[in-house]
Amino acid sequence: MVFRKNFFYFFFLINCSFIYSQSPIVQAEGMQIYCPGTQLHIATSFSTTAAGTETGQKGLYVQISQGYVNGEDTISLLTPANFPNIDEDWSAIEGKLTFTHKIDPQILYSEMEALLLDVVFESTSANPKNDKSFSISIGDANYLPSQDHYYKYYSYSDITIADKNWTTAKTFAESESYYGLIGYLATLATEEEAILAGIQAPGQGWIGASDATQEGKWEWVTGPEGIVHFWDGNYEDGNKPCDNLNGNCSAVIDPITLELKYNNWAPFEPNEYGSGEDYGHIYPTGKWNDYGNNNTSVDGFIVEFGGSTGDPILTITDFTDIIMPTIISPSPILPEIICGPDTVTFNVQVNTLAP
Questions:
Q1: Pairwise CA distance, residues 49 & 23, whole Å
Q2: Peptide bond before 332: cis, by omega within 30 degrees of 0?
Q3: How far is CA 271 from the centre of its chain?
Q4: In 3-state terms, what secondary structure has residue 37?
Q5: CA distance linking residue 163 with residue 333, whole number of Å
Q6: Rounded distance, CA 143 to CA 63, Å?
Q7: Closest Cα partner for 202 from 156, 164, 269?
Q8: Rounded Cα–Cα distance for residues 346 and 239 (Å)
Q9: Strand, coil or helix: what is 121?
């Protein structure tokens, strides 16, 4: 393939591990450009280092943690017959591939390395638009590279908890830890966080937003950043206009970036329906709603780990990237034109990962 315009891509290897660690070290490398209609290995190299005398781990977890498009993107083993004793479980909602051993309680590190190098990415789109980041971990929580935080959904059907309300979920979250990271109800301050912790989560649940202190003044109240004011105002029940209890139903302007703080409310939410709807809740669609503390329709809650004072540096996760050059024209885009040996002229929109 010959480019008619001078677009240069600089390749570099990603290595996000550390020399010293008290936890196992996972090292993955690779940044590649995807050719539509093909299967591409997500890593060019992969290794694991034990923290002590252990020889393996319960599972290996691989997720398209940024840029995932449900219904188009998949990751899978290229040659599953080479791993007859490994269970491969793909979750389309999470964009996540889970490997466990069929017989033994652990997957050996030596087998884990061969396993990961056999994982390939494929998109059914002839012109995929989102760059992809792949998190590779020996822990089961979802990992977001841009934040270096972990997110885990807790379903009420899987845990024992006294009361299924926001207040108790907040207390439970703060009692949880993940490889030494302190937990808290998720604060979804960016679109990437909202996608991974909301849309790419298996259920609906509480998040760390509240206007209990002042009606209509919505704040993130659970994270290590402290109280973060992000939204002003509620909508009137049924009539839809903003009731101006506090503000004009709009996002708060960040004083540093001068940009609107992120929000993802469902249409005409929050609305203080009835009274006492002072706590944030996320739907399976990723949209937010305000609920009363004891709303019984909530299935669980999302716990975030990372960013707290005293948190250790984890080495159990690394990530790689695949770049998706966006082809603007000609149309329709044909994979054989893009990937074949012929010369073709087309326009390219520079992707977000390329320098």
A1: 9
A2: yes
A3: 28
A4: coil
A5: 54
A6: 8
A7: 156
A8: 50
A9: strand
Distance CA 353, CA 355 (A): 6
What is the residue type of 237?
D
pTM of the model: 0.83
Note the residue count of the chain.
355
Angle at 123 between CA 135 and CA 342, to 5 degrees: 120
Q: Which tokens in the block code for residue 51?
A: 């923290």
What tokens were used for 36? 């539509």
Contact 209, 279 (CB under 8 A): yes
**Rounded to whole angstroms, what are the CA distances from 57 to 76, 77, 100, 172, 317?**
20, 19, 9, 26, 13
* C-alpha to C-alpha distance for 294 and 277, rounded to whole angstroms: 10
Return d(Cα 103, Cα 255) in angstroms, integer: 56
* Cross-strand pairs, 7: none
Strand partners, 32: 322
Q: 164 near 291, Cβ under 8 Å?
A: no
pLDDT digits (tens, 9 = 90+) for 87-114: 999 999 999 999 999 999 999 999 999 9
Q: What is the pLDDT averaged over residues 237-262?
A: 87
| Mean pLDDT in residue range 279-283 | 94
CA dist 280 and 207 (Å) reads 5
The residues that bridge with 121 in the sheet, in sequence order, are 40, 75
Token pair, residue 47, equals 């290794």
